[in-house]
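Support request from a user on the community tier.

User writes: "When I paste my structure tokens into the form, the page sometimes reloads and wipes my input. The last time it worked, I copied everything first. Here is what I submitted, just in case something in the input itself triggers the reload:"
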């Protein structure tokens, strides 16, 4: 059990106390300084397992994740507005302080996707694209140059801000579409996608995340791929952690925990082909994984790549 006496937890708690008393989380010198300190504190590999926090620290973590999510949204809105003032916004994306992080994260996600998918996806959904849909923009611009991207966001202002960024680009304006909706209200439309990306901030705690994943398991096309963002070690104080066991209805193919400045872990999973005895109303229950899946995680929390397909030969068991 990790409690508030742990030196790293004490440092994070101190930063939480300062952040939670700020008047506003809009970008400013103080906000930028505190969040930079927080990220640098949580980034290094550590043995901290956020699923084993005492109640008080777990409560602080839940609140901190929400504050980080709010600040991230405000930061993206701020820079989306500035970018919209340029004639060609997409030529100036590097003014966003975390642009190189997105370049690296998208490269990582593309590498993992191509490792498990032989065909180039025709249609991709990005859930939680926001006012600055950098993942879709980077993937569409550099990696998936013939794929169409459908971006979903619950925030009504996200669509208009995002459209202003891509409308000046003749290629992306034809391949990127934006929908204002809670993803929980999208049902049969999810069947159209070969790949669904789920942003780290959709589902801000375990219950919400599991509800979204179960919704996707119910409506995604059998065999379609789900790319999720999670967190590992102390990075779990910045973002929700997705546990492979939360992914009912999917076979987990691989989990990658970056150790550089890319904060999010990447999980790739595939929706099970629909077994004869199941239907959309009753998605397949949890795959009875050998407990080796759990051992891998528990044995070495510093392990940064778990390829479940090699480790567990799931594919053989399913064929
Ligand atoms: C701040 S963005 C981060 C994504 C980032 N721009 C990217 O390209 O990876 C996360 C977005 O998720 C959206 N969101 C949260 N819950 C959602 C839901 N249930 N359905 C759709 N969008 C949601 C928020 O409105 C927010 O704009």
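"...and here is what came back when it finally went through:"
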């Amino acid at each position: 059990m990790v409690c508030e006496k742990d030196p790293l937890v004490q440092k994070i708690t101190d930063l939480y106390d300062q952040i939670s008393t700020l008047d506003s989380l809009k970008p400013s010198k103080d906000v930028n300084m505190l969040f930079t300190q927080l990220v640098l504190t949580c980034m290094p590999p550590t043995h901290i397992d956020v699923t084993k926090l005492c109640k008080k620290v777990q409560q602080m973590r839940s609140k901190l994740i929400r504050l980080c999510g709010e600040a991230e949204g405000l930061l993206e809105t701020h820079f989306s507005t500035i970018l919209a003032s340029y004639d060609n916004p997409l030529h100036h994306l590097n003014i966003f302080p975390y642009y190189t992080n997105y370049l690296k994260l998208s490269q990582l996600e593309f590498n993992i996707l191509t490792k498990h998918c032989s065909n180039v996806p025709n249609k991709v959904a990005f859930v939680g694209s926001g006012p600055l849909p950098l993942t879709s923009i980077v993937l569409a611009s550099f990696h998936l140059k013939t794929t169409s991207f459908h971006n979903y966001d619950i925030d009504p202002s996200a669509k208009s801000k995002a459209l202003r960024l891509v409308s000046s680009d003749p290629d992306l304006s034809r391949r990127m579409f934006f929908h204002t909706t809670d993803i929980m209200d999208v049902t049969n439309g999810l069947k159209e996608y070969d790949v669904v990306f789920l942003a780290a901030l959709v589902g801000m705690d375990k219950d919400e995340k599991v509800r979204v994943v179960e919704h996707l398991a119910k409506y995604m096309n059998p065999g379609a791929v789900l790319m999720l963002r999670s967190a590992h070690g102390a990075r779990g104080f910045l973002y929700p952690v997705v546990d492979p066991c939360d992914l009912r209805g999917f076979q987990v193919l691989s989990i990658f925990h970056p150790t550089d400045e890319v904060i999010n872990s990447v999980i790739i999973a595939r929706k099970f082909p629909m077994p004869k005895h199941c239907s959309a109303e009753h998605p397949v229950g949890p795959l009875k994984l050998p407990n080796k899946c759990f051992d891998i995680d528990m044995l070495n929390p510093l392990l940064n790549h778990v390829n479940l397909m090699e480790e567990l030969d799931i594919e053989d068991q399913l064929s």
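Agent notes: The reload is a front-end session timeout and is unrelated to the input. The chain has a mean pLDDT of 89. The radius of gyration is 19 Å. Escalated to web team.
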